Amino acid sequence: MIKNNSDMPVTHSVLKRELKNFATKQEFNEWGETLSDRINGVENKLTEKIDGIDGKMDGLEGRMDGMETRMDGLEKAIVDAKDEILTKIDGFVKRVSGLDEENAAGSIQLNRINSTLVRHDQRIKKLETA
User: Domain spans of the chain?
Assistant: First the structure.
């Protein structure tokens, strides 16, 4: 490289020698075309990938709709089963309540019979000793 000396004139040969390592306009144009081609290739690949992803997303949306429909059906079946179970439990509880009432009534009646039996037993013992 030449020392910076403003008094020294720049000749064609000096200028040519100093600029030989710099790119030319033609080289810049070629690089621009190459870069443009590569960018277009990348853009096309990205477009293909995005289109593929869009297709997969559409497929997933369809599957999700199907799953939602199945879940709605399952939810209805669970609610129906719960209602049926609760209805049967209500019937069972009514029967058990009825049995409890019968048991209470039977217990009262058994106490009366036992009291009567004790009294009769006492009267029989008095009659036997007399």
Answer: 24-129
